[in-house]
Amino acid sequence: MSFYQPIIAEDNRLHCKLYHIDRPLPLSDVLPILENLGLRVLGEFPYRLQRRDGRVFWIHDFAFTYAEGWKSTCWKSTSRCRTPSSPR
To answer: Which pLDDT tens digit goes with each residue over 48-65?
Structure first.
C-alpha cells in the first residue's frame, strides 16, 4: 500500500495505491479495512497491467477523505503517510 497526496488536492484528501497479482481485489474486501482506519472512500480507479508473458498485475488507486481528528503527514521522499503518533 502506498499513500500519496496529488499535487492539486483538496484539504483532507489523500489517495492510496494497492497492488495485486493476477486478479483485481474485490471492493467488498478492501472498503471495510479502509473504513476501519477512519477513511471515507470517495472512489476507486483500477488499472490492469499485463506483461508480455501474460502475467497480470492490478493497481487500485483509491481516493478518500479522513476524519477531522485524523491528521497525517506525508513525506514525498517515501510516499508514505503516518499519523503523528506513529513511530518514525
So the answer is: 999 999 999 999 999 988
Which of 3.30.70, 3.30.450, 2.40.30, 3.40.1350 would CATH assign to domain 2-78? 3.30.70
Buried b (16+ CB within 10 A) or exposed e, 41-77: eeebeeeeeeeeeeeeebebebbbbbeeeeeeeeeee
Whole-number Å distance between alpha carbons of 21 and 49: 10
Helices (H), the chain: 27-36
CA distance 24 to 49: 11
**Residue 52: partners with Cβ closer than 8 Å, 6 or more residues away:** none
pTM exceeds 0.90, yes or no = no
